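Q: Got a minute? One more chain.
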Amino acid sequence: MIFGLQILAVVFALVMIYFAYVNFKRKEINRVELSIWVSAWGAASFMVLFPDTLRAFAQTFFISRLLDLLVLGGFVLVITMVAIAYVRTKRIEKKLERFIRQEALKGLINSKSKTLNSKQIQKFNK
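A: Always. Here it is, folded:
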């Protein structure tokens, strides 16, 4: 029997799949990310519609309550997402720093090129 909350959860998952598709069409996410989001929301819908299968899975790993399994899965998901976001942020930070240094050196070389000799200019380019 499907309850009202289950219907609401499935509708929410379908809306989130739609948003993932819209972001894919805008080229804000790539095909792999789209498939990950569709799989995640599809799995969430499956868990909501068929909680007994998930309960059997939880008992296999000696987890007494279904909510405990969902909380553990949420922690794993959040920690993974934070780690990926951290790595991407550091990568962008390094690229931005490299770009700013190059632009600063170009400006310095252009303004000082009249007074610097070629050896000093080569020193700045390293």
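A: Residues 1-49 form one domain.
Q: Perfect, thanks.
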